Amino acid sequence: MKTRDFDRRANAGHMRNEVLGTDGRGVTVVRASTIVLAFTMLGSVISSGVHAQSSRSVESPTSCVMPVGNPTEIASGLNIPWSAVYVGSEVLVSQHGTGEIVAFQLGEELRSVGTVPGVVARGDGGMLGLAVLTEGANIWLYAYHSTSSGNRIVRMAYSEGALGEVQLVLDGLPGGRGHNGGRIAFGPDGMLYVTVGETRNPDLAQDRNSLAGKILRMTPTGGVPTDNPINGSLVYSLGHRNSQGLAWDDRGELWATDFGDDGWDELNRIEPGGNYGWPIIEGRGGNPAYIDPVMQWHTQEMGPSGLAYVDGSFFIAGLTGQRLWSVTIDAAGNPDATAYYAGEFGRVRHVLEGRDGNLWFLTNGRRGDPGGQILSVPLTRVAAAECSRVSAAGRRGGVPATIP
Ligand SMILES: [Ca+2]
């Protein structure tokens, strides 16, 4: 049944591609020109000063970045690392089972910077996402964590290498033994975006009066922004099951992963007020009342947590699939997914652009090894037409949609 679904959806995607190629918009010609550009760029890593163009206009070919070579371990002995953020040259890391936040600089040992009080780890709940806000001379570390009665967001001043007292940002977020969400990130608009899972109560994802199964948008002090899509509500988008990944592309558009049930995991482009379908639809449904994912995967090969956008490429941490995924989108708007390191490093929890310009990813360590790692792998930049060629050398997967 699933195989048939896969084939049908894949064929549908292919047909859409063909339609795009013959609709008189000059796609074929532009693809040829991107190939020329690709050859001029091939074999040399373009300096990081050249920023990827994310416009999906066929006149503006994109570029992407791809991992090259073998990942090297830059931190080890972590207790299920969940999130990592930067403060100056330091990296601060949350660990799922404990409220202790650790920090390190490249090449140096881990050290504790303090403990977030009241963290309760049950199921997938625990010490989850981190974010950093700099206000003048003040540096705030934000943390999303589970308590004995749900989830909350707190912040602590980070000064002279240590965390200060806890300030409550938002209490009373839904929580439970599973589907706690927990990724937090400041957007380009300075607002704090938060993924909240449906806490194993699927119907809450469609309940506009519940914060479960939502992506929230709030001010740095937990208030409702005046320009949120639902007046007076923190809800930014709904119909999510257990999103744990947030990233913005070059155009400032928000994207998020969603951890599916037993059908489809998703990469979604998030629109303000958009409804992403759960639990009515999992994966692509073609119902205009709900926004379909841009890319979807069988759950055994993905199980997405963290999401990053780096110079034209999305990277997704695959927990269940124990691999890292990249998603690139070509100039015609067609996404393409590639898997890396399947089974090599255990469950991959988070991925981010590294302090050294490499791609970093957080893992739970190898099977039977409790020690979580942070790994670093170099990235190389290629032009859009080459992204597919490079990815074809890896293991392609996922079921693409054509972006309108
Ligand atoms: Ca969905």
From TrEMBL:
<protein>
    <recommendedName>
        <fullName>Glucose/Sorbosone dehydrogenase domain-containing protein</fullName>
    </recommendedName>
</protein>
<dbReference type="InterPro" id="IPR011042">
    <property type="entry name" value="6-blade_b-propeller_TolB-like"/>
</dbReference>
<dbReference type="InterPro" id="IPR011041">
    <property type="entry name" value="Quinoprot_gluc/sorb_DH_b-prop"/>
</dbReference>
<feature type="domain" description="Glucose/Sorbosone dehydrogenase">
    <location>
        <begin position="78"/>
        <end position="368"/>
    </location>
</feature>
<dbReference type="Pfam" id="PF07995">
    <property type="entry name" value="GSDH"/>
</dbReference>
<dbReference type="InterPro" id="IPR012938">
    <property type="entry name" value="Glc/Sorbosone_DH"/>
</dbReference>
